[in-house]
Design goal:
Layout lengths: L5 E4 L5 E4 L6 H6 L5 H15 L5 E5 L3 E6 L2 E6 L8 E5 H18 L3
Helix pairs in contact: 2-3
């Protein structure tokens, strides 16, 4: 993994992922993924982009969307007041972040 990350509880006790400033908006997207099945679905879409089945693929969640292209993935936060409103990451790094989150989901959402 090229980027550092850590998990940290917010004041409400929810665990989130802390990412470097240049990709910080990806945490807004990733933290909205609540099930292993959901993250597996997204990983499958990314793999289809990487292997050329899809030219690109867009996923929209509550306040964010990601546009997955073969080389880069762009996240946009629709409601963020301060800059930046977009971040870019290499698509292969994005899928690695999703695998990290996938492994953490049972702990985060253990009810």
């Amino acid at each position: 993994m090229k980027y550092s990350y850590e998990f940290k509880k917010d004041p409400f006790g929810d665990l989130g992922i802390i990412l470097p400033e240049e990709i910080c908006l990806f945490s807004d997207f990733i933290e909205n993924i609540a099930t292993v099945e959901q993250v597996d679905e997204y990983i499958e879409y990314i793999e289809k982009v990487l292997n050329g089945t899809y030219e690109d693929f867009e996923i929209e969640l509550n306040a964010t969307s990601v546009l997955i292209k073969k080389d880069v993935t762009i996240v946009e936060n629709f409601y963020r007041i301060e800059e930046p409103h977009e971040n870019t990451i290499e698509t292969k790094q994005f899928i690695e972040l999703l695998f990290v989150w996938r492994d953490k989901i049972p702990e985060i959402f253990k009810g």
